[in-house]
Automatic annotation (TrEMBL):
Organism expressing this protein natively: Helobdella robusta
Domain BBSome complex member BBS5 PH: 27-81, 157-211
Alphabetic keyword roster: Cell membrane, Cell projection, Cilium, Cytoplasm, Cytoskeleton, Membrane
Gene giving rise to this polypeptide: 20194956
Family: Belongs to the BBS5 family.
Localisation: Cell projection, Cilium membrane; Cytoplasm, Cytoskeleton, Microtubule organizing center, Centrosome, Centriolar satellite
Any one Gene Ontology molecular-function term assigned to this protein's record: phosphatidylinositol-3-phosphate binding
One biological process term in Gene Ontology: cilium assembly
Record Pfam families: BBL5 (PF07289)
Protein name (database record): BBSome complex member BBS5 PH domain-containing protein
Record bears the keyword Cell inner membrane: no
GO cellular component labels: BBSome; centriolar satellite; ciliary basal body; ciliary membrane
Length: 341
C-alpha cells in the first residue's frame, strides 16, 4: 500500500460503505468501546467506537451504514466535558475539532460506560504518537535527521546498509553523499553538508527501478503525489554494487508494503483491543439504513462555518427572490431547510 492509496488517516468520511471500516494493512485497533453516542449527529443512537493507529471510527450498532471515519491527521484539538445524553442521564463527552479539504467540523462523542478506558485520554495518547512518528510516513527534505553525526532512528527501525560515494542526481552537477537503507525508509545526505538530505519512507514510494540517466545507470525512486510527486535518482559505482543495493532496497520495499509499519506505537491500559482485534468485521451486504432521519445532508450537522475569515459572495436566489450568501459546493437550499427542521 502506497501513501496515495492510504486515505484512512488523512480524510474525514461520513456514511461510507461499511466494508471501508475494516482495518487496512498495518492498521491496528488500540481501543474499542461498545457504548458510545454520537451526540452531535445521531443523538440517542447507540453506537460503537474504534480507535486505531490511523483513525477514529464511530458507527451505529443497528445500522452500520451510519458511520464516521475520522483520520488522525484531520484532528485539530480534543477536549473533554461532562454532558447530558438521551441514552444516559449524564456522561463524559469528547469534543473533537477537525479539518478536511478546507472544511472544519466539530464532533461530540459520549462514552456511556463509566468504568472503562477514557476515550479522551486514549485519543490524546494516540494523537501524540501519530504526530511524533511522521518520519515513517512523510518525505522530508533538508530535515533534522542526524544527532552527533549519526542518523536518528525510530522505534523498530533498523539500519541494513550504509553506502558511501552515492551521487544524487537532483541537479546538473550531481552531489556526492551517503545513502542509508533501513527497514522503513531510504536516507541520503551530502558529504559536504548533512543538512542537504532527503528521507524517503517506503510508504511514499510508488516504484523503485534501475534506469539510464545522463550520469549513467541509476536507482530511481518514483514518489507519490502525497509525498511531493518527485522523481529521485542516485548513481552508485560500480554497476554491480548498484544492482546489489537495488535488489536489497526493492526487497525491503516489498516487505514493507506487504506489512506496513506506520510508526504509531501506543497502548491503552485496560484496553479491550487485544481480545477484539478481529471482532469488528463489516461486509458489503451489511444492513443498510437509507433514511438518515430528519436531515438529508449529514455534513451540515458537523460542519463548523464560523471559522471563515470572510463571507461568501451574495447571489440572487430565484426561489426566494432575494440575494443570499452563496451556498457551499454540494449544498442546496432544500438541504439547509431539512437540517433546520
Amino acid at each position: 500500500m502506497s501513501g496515495d492509496n492510504l486515505w484512512q488517516d488523512r480524510e474525514t468520511r461520513f456514511d461510507v460503505n461499511p466494508s471501508l471500516l475494516n482495518l487496512v494493512r498495518g492498521e491496528k485497533v488500540i481501543l474499542e468501546l461498545n457504548a458510545v453516542e454520537d451526540s452531535k449527529g445521531n443523538t440517542g443512537v447507540l453506537g460503537s467506537a474504534i480507535l486505531s493507529n490511523l483513525r477514529f471510527i464511530w458507527h451505529s450498532q443497528k445500522f452500520p451504514k451510519v458511520n464516521i471515519s475520522l483520520g488522525h491527521n484531520c484532528i485539530l484539538s480534543v477536549n473533554c466535558i461532562h454532558s447530558q445524553s438521551k441514552i444516559k442521564s449524564s456522561s463524559d463527552s469528547v469534543i473533537i475539532s477537525a479539518e478536511c479539504s478546507g472544511e472544519k467540523y466539530e464532533f461530540v462523542f459520549s462514552n456511556l460506560i463509566v468504568d472503562g478506558p477514557s476515550l479522551y485520554t486514549s485519543l490524546n495518547s494516540v494523537l501524540r504518537a501519530y504526530v511524533s512518528s511522521k518520519m515513517y510516513r512523510e518525505v522530508k527534505l533538508r530535515g533534522s535527521l542526524f544527532k552527533d553525526d549519526a542518523l536518528k532512528t525510530y522505534p523498530h527501525e533498523e539500519i541494513f546498509r550504509e553506502i558511501h560515494g552515492v551521487l544524487n542526481l537532483s541537479n546538473d552537477q550531481g552531489n556526492i553523499g551517503v545513502m542509508i537503507v533501513t527497514n522503513v525508509r531510504v536516507v541520503w545526505y551530502a558529504l559536504s553538508n548533512q543538512i542537504y538530505n532527503v528521507s524517503i519512507p517506503y510508504l511514499q514510494i510508488i516504484d523503485v527501478k534501475v534506469k539510464d540517466s545522463k550520469f549513467g545507470r541509476a536507482i530511481v525512486f518514483e514518489i507519490t503525489k502525497q509525498g511531493g510527486g518527485y522523481i529521485l535518482g542516485f548513481r552508485i559505482d560500480p554497476v554491480e554494487k548498484l544492482q546489489a543495493v537495488f535488489r536489497e532496497v526493492r526487497k525491503l520495499y516489498k516487505m514493507f508494503t506487504h506489512n506496513p509499519n506506520y510508526g504509531i506505537e501506543c497502548s491503552v491500559e485496560n484496553s479491550m483491543a487485544e481480545s477484539k482485534q478481529n471482532s469488528s468485521k463489516f461486509s458489503d451486504d451489511a444492513e443498510v439504513y437509507e433514511d438518515h432521519g430528519e436531515h438529508s445532508d449529514v455534513f451540515a450537522l458537523y460542519c463548523v462555518d464560523g471559522g471563515r475569515a470572510t463571507n461568501r459572495e451574495p447571489v440572487y436566489n430565484e426561489e426566494l427572490g432575494l440575494l443570499i450568501e452563496k451556498l457551499p459546493d454540494g449544498y442546496t437550499l432544500s438541504d439547509l431547510w431539512d437540517v433546520m427542521k
